Amino acid sequence: MNWQRHLEDYRNYLEFERAMSPNSIHSYVFDVEKLQSFLSVNDIKCSPSNIDHETIKTFVYEISKLVNARSQARIISGLRNFFDHIVLEGYREENPVKRIAIPKIGRKLPETLTTTEIDKMIKAVGLKTRHHLRNAALLETIYSCGLRVSELINLKFSDLFFQEDFIKIVGKGNKTRLVPVAKTTKEAIENYKKIDRKRLHPDEASADFVFLNQSGKPMTRAMVFTIVRQASSLIGLSKKVSPHTFRHSFATHLLENGADLRAIQQMLGHESITTTEVYTHVDQSHLRKVVDQYHPREKRKNLKG
To answer: From the candidates 148, 186, 197, 248, which is the catalytic residue?
Structure first.
């Protein structure tokens, strides 16, 4: 059985058994294709069922010259997952990546925006961009609901339950969750719908999607990234900002204002609370204020003072 056949089986496994998103599937398969390319360039003849530990170790050593530790760790993890599948399917007895160490890396957390910066970005795109009502509603939604980009571009009017103050989100693995929606967000979407979106004439397949491009088609991930970068540029922001920065800021701001971590986990659609903890780091100054305000010994000390 050759590499392409194994990769096709692996794709099906990730899609139908693991219920992964297309982007995740692409990343996992791409890791294996890097290994396959290395074998081809070096004229190494082997298949997934008989490649040995030393060959993969050599590949990892060579790839470490080209990528940083974080990327290296992701590639090794991706290969482990692929060969776990090969073992599971009975094509080999042991995973050849099992004994290859993953580089230790610290937690890399994205930038967090302040509420003032977010307000300025939404105001800037709402005044100075061509599709200002759409762009303002888009940023308002991704921040106030803590959405992933894929969730934002796939949001439908049939998922909006504004009377109940919730929206339904279809997240990773087609798992649905209900997320509260703020009054300002509802107003931004309604304004966009009544004015900006009314000028478009989407076909039947696109009519239910909330956010459309100027051709009346659902927006792409790339367009959302462009709008975020444009908003950042308009206010002269020096931080490196992406759509995910809004999601991270949503979680961080909730935690800083006393929200329960489990509730944040549910709203973000995380399976593991550990993942939520990574997103919702709080800076040391905020932690210090929490202790000063709520710890009984600190409160006693403040009263004495």
So the answer is: 148
Active site residue 288: no
Q: Say whether 193 is catalytic.
A: no
Contacts for 123 with CB less than 8 Å, ≥ 6 apart: 136
Q: Has 247 been annotated as catalytic?
A: yes
Sign of the CA dihedral 124, 128, 129, 134? Answer: positive
Kindly report whether the global pTM for this prediction surpasses the value 0.85: no
Residues 35/56, Cβ–Cβ less than 8 Å: yes
Active site residue 28: no
Distance in angstroms (rounded) separating the CA atoms of residues 110 and 112: 6
Q: Which domains does the chain have, with CATH numbers?
A: 3-88 (1.10.150), 115-286 (1.10.443.10)
> pLDDT digit string (tens) for 97-114?
988 988 876 666 667 899
Q: For 14-18, 207-211, 242-246, which range has the lowest pLDDT when averaged over its residues?
A: 14-18
- Active-site residue, from 34, 92, 229, 244: 244
List the catalytic residue out of 80, 131, 247, 253. Answer: 247
Task: Examine the residue annotation and report whether 270 is marked as an active-site residue of this protein.
Answer: yes
List 172, 183, 194, 201, catalytic entry:
172
- Structural element, H or E, at residue 246: helix 243-256
Structure confidence by residue, pLDDT tens digits, 110-169:
678 999 999 999 999 988 888 999 999 999 999 999 999 999 999 999 999 999 999 999
**Token couple for 45:** 């003849």
244 as an active site residue: the answer is: yes
Residue 258's φ and ψ, nearest 5 degrees, are 95, 10
